[in-house]
Amino acid sequence: MSDPACWVFNVYQSASKPPASPPHPRHLLRLLLGFLAMAAPPQPVPAPAAVRPDVFRLGFIGPGNLAESIARGVAASGVLPATAIRTAPHRRPERAEAFSSIGAHILETNAQVVDDSDVIVISVKPQIVRQVLVELKPLLSEEKLLVSIAAGIKMEDLQGWSGHRRVIRVMPNTPSAVGQAASVMCLGEMATENDENRVRSLFSAIGKVWTAEEKYFDAVTGLSGSGPAYIFLAIEAMADGGVAAGLPRDLALGLASQTVLGAATMVNQTGKHPGQLKDMVTSPAGTTITGIQELEKGAFRGTLINAVVAATKRCRELSQS
Ligand SMILES: NC(=O)c1ccc[n+]([C@@H]2O[C@H](COP(=O)([O-])OP(=O)(O)OC[C@H]3O[C@@H](n4cnc5c(N)ncnc54)[C@H](OP(=O)(O)O)[C@@H]3O)[C@@H](O)[C@H]2O)c1
């Protein structure tokens, strides 16, 4: 009996039980009016306070390939509106056009970009970083966050050249171009938790992000920085194997790259150890274990381990020279 008419009837019943005589229509009308007065018109329910997106102005010093990938990812994923992004062209006007096509603001000079940004990404080649930071040093007020993606340039140098302590260093990798970067960041002395969250949101727009101490950055470069090239080689070699076994080239290449993508996705999505996934697909005396036996004869795993260690060592040498 949730119908109001029934409710009125029930109220009447309980208030005047037993009725001495049938209710006079005037009483019924009064009850009904009373009920209507009690049932106040529904008030608009205030919408739950929406979490305000953290909109900040993002400037790129160096409108190159990686900067464009980040800008595109950030705008496409809605982390920031495109209008919150700015850069200035250097020599090639087509770089500015690429940013314009995203909807970013094109300013005239690096100084204007710094002046008009809260977060400034240094995205020039490593050998230019010093010169650029020394030039921008007088403009870097305390509230600005400096982010460097330049490979091999250490936090100590970034802070020293810029005279700024609110710095985050990030090491992304080339799959940033397709939104599948593996990026690692480390925080400078004065970078805040909010700064870390902002940079995480930017690089999450182009892949996955970890925070780690800077002491790991050489090894990060040897693994995820150089790693895509190791896998390109593996894809090419697997495709060559397919061709050697009689497959047409296109089919072999498609199968090889999709197999690498599928295997990596399984590791990421199942959370299972790759050794466990390997065991699940190797049946006794089957084809896969026969193939693995050949890989082990060629020291497949040892070679990959050595490759990462050698690239790490080389990165260390280069950053010391
Ligand atoms: N690409 C990657 O996947 C990747 C991965 C990890 C780290 N990184 C790092 O990311 C940085 C950028 O790499 P990238 O591949 O994007 O290089 P890039 O395409 O060559 O971009 C560099 C940009 O800097 C501009 N530039 C040069 N001198 C400048 C100056 N004085 N002021 C302002 N802009 C200037 C260049 O403009 P003009 O061409 O017009 O001179 C160009 O647009 C590098 O430090 C690299 O180590 C890249």
TrEMBL record:
Residues that hold NADPH according to the record: N110
Annotated NADP(+) binding sites: I61, G62, P63, G64, N65, L66
MF annotations from Gene Ontology: pyrroline-5-carboxylate reductase activity
Nucleus among keywords: no
Domain Pyrroline-5-carboxylate reductase dimerisation: 214-318
Single GO BP term: L-proline biosynthetic process
Pathway: Amino-acid biosynthesis; L-proline biosynthesis; L-proline from L-glutamate 5-semialdehyde: step 1/1
Superkingdom: Eukaryota
An annotated GO cellular component: cytoplasm
InterPro entries xrefs: 6-PGluconate_DH-like_C_sf, NAD(P)-bd_dom_sf, P5C_Rdtase_cat_N, P5CR-like_CS, P5CR_dimer, Pyrroline-COOH_reductase
Pfam families per the UniProt record, alphabetical: F420_oxidored (PF03807), P5CR_dimer (PF14748)
UniProt-annotated location(s): Cytoplasm
Broad class of the protein's primary localization: cytoplasm
Catalytic activity: L-proline + NAD(+) = (S)-1-pyrroline-5-carboxylate + NADH + 2 H(+); L-proline + NADP(+) = (S)-1-pyrroline-5-carboxylate + NADPH + 2 H(+)
Key words, A-Z: Amino-acid biosynthesis, Cytoplasm, NADP, Oxidoreductase, Proline biosynthesis
Domain Pyrroline-5-carboxylate reductase catalytic N-terminal, residue spans: 57-152
PROSITE patterns, sorted: P5CR (PS00521)
E.C. no: 1.5.1.2
Xref: PANTHER family: PYRROLINE-5-CARBOXYLATE REDUCTASE (PTHR11645), PYRROLINE-5-CARBOXYLATE REDUCTASE 3 (PTHR11645:SF0)
Family statement drawn from the similarity comment of this UniProt entry: Belongs to the pyrroline-5-carboxylate reductase family.
HAMAP family assigned to the protein according to its UniProt record, in alphabetical order: P5C_reductase
NCBIfam families: proC
Record protein name field: Pyrroline-5-carboxylate reductase
Organism: Oryza punctata (Red rice)
